[in-house]
Design a protein that fits this description.
Helix content is 21%, strand content 17%. With 271 residues, the chain is α+β, with helices and mostly antiparallel strands.
């Protein structure tokens, strides 16, 4: 759990370097359950690498995890991670995407990129994206730990595709979580070992930014009905600061509860 001092320390690291690592953040039992479920989905759905330079030809990615299993609902709201993200963005932040990234032996390094480089606003800017990587296995330089360019979130530009940029591995033990500013230059590392590097990418965006994965259409309503109140809000079934995201002036939550819509537009709040 984050104390005021540790929270402040992590925020200082993100401000200075563009990233921080929360060590031993995730319970081993939860990691075991998540890993088992990911392997089941990969096997049952016969998911294979996308075979393109960005996603990797030896990297298995599983998207839209909130629609694929109850256990994944614990990720976006985890108390060791969400409070940090809420301070980088704000309480109105959203789940942008939730996916797994399994880098298999022989995968070459991913091109260095910034997660917000498709958003056309001048840099540097306030964070509109805050992303995280959960280590389901140890992350080492040899097995493909995420590579980062410290301080690059303050750059006035994004990296050019396939640009050669000096970077360092964000090494961390299983159960740790890497959190970074959306402008940070980074990329998955090369796996020179004989074992898989498995991580979960839990990505967030500001409440006024379009989500990377369309949560409202990608998650069946009967699944979202079972979400906690906080997770519903994170997925966009709410209104940002009394205005953004309404349906005829009402928060979308009524679609999940089967209740009458209650007007909320015009009630300005810091959520």
């Amino acid at each position: 759990m984050n104390t005021d001092s540790t929270l402040s320390s992590h925020l200082d690291h993100i401000e200075r370097d563009g990233y921080t690592i929360v060590e031993n953040a995730i319970e081993p039992s939860l990691l075991d359950s998540l890993t088992d479920e990911l392997y089941r989905i990969e096997r049952d759905e016969k998911i294979v690498p996308a075979n393109n330079p960005f996603e990797g030809d030896r990297t298995v990615r599983i998207y839209n995890l909130l629609a694929r299993g109850k256990v994944f609902e614990e990720i976006p709201v985890h108390p060791a991670v969400l409070p940090i993200v809420e301070k980088v963005l704000d309480r109105g932040c959203l789940v942008s995407s939730l996916s797994s990234i399994a880098i298999d032996p022989g995968q070459t390094a991913q091109p260095i990129h910034a997660d917000d480089q498709v958003i056309s606003i001048p840099k540097p800017h306030v964070p509109v994206i805050c992303n995280t990587m959960w280590a389901c296995t140890d992350f080492t330089e040899m097995n493909g730990a995420t590579r980062v360019v410290p301080g690059s979130h303050k750059s006035e530009r994004s990296p050019i595709p396939f640009e050669e940029v000096p970077s360092i591995p964000a090494e961390m033990k299983r159960g740790s979580v890497l959190i970074w500013h959306g402008s940070l230059w980074h990329g998955g590392g090369a796996n020179h070992t004989q074992t898989r590097r498995l991580g979960i990418a839990m990505n967030y965006c500001a409440g006024y930014i379009r989500q990377q994965e369309n949560q409202q259409l990608g998650i069946p309503l009967n699944v979202a009905k079972g979400f906690s109140d906080r997770l519903r809000k994170l997925c966009g079934f709410t209104v940002y600061k009394g205005l953004i995201g309404h349906i005829d002036k009402a928060a979308p939550t009524y679609l999940l509860d089967g209740t009458a819509p209650v007007p909320v537009v015009g009630v300005i709040k810091n959520r």
